[in-house]
Amino acid sequence: MVDGEVVGAIGAGLCVLLGVAREDEAADAARLAGRVARLRIFENENGKFDRSLVDTGGAALVVTQFTLLADTAKGNRPSFTEAAEPEVAERVYEAFCAALAALGVSVETGLFGARMRVEIANDGPVTIVLGSA
Questions:
Q1: SS3 assignment for the chain
Q2: Known active-site residue 67
Q3: Active-site residue among 66, 72, 81, 96?
Q4: CA nearest 29: which of 40, 41, 42, 16?
Q5: Is 65 a catalytic residue?
Q6: What was the pLDDT predicted at 133?
Q7: CA distance 130 to 54
Q8: Which of the residues in the chain have pLDDT under 70?
Q9: What pLDDT score does 132 carry?
């Protein structure tokens, strides 16, 4: 939600919090989108992680989250110097969303750069950190 208005919503699927680092590029975004789409983290009929977002027909809500790049090594105030500049981050974010959609995943987004309220119903829960490498 942005300013009390829903800008993106999905049913079953994944909420992807995407942090873009200074060195990330569109090729990294495409590679990461492939990993997200094919990651087998949904249960099959036997309760085993064996199905991907593509297999289940689930959607992805992709929200930019530069705070994932926080460096807390010094002091009590996080540094975000490793986060990409907004214009670079937006290009990589859009490339990620486009690559995910090209793999057949229904993609909804937040509003880049806006202060958002994100509501997540985490069924499981399963939370996984993926790097672009």
A1: CECCECCCCCCCEEEEEECCECCCCHHHHHHHHHHHHHCCCEECCCCCEEECHHHHCCEEEEEECHHHHCECCCCCCCECCCECCHHHHHHHHHHHHHHHHHCCCEEEECCCCCCCCCCCCCCCCCCCCCCCC
A2: yes
A3: 66
A4: 16
A5: yes
A6: 56
A7: 17
A8: 132-133
A9: 61
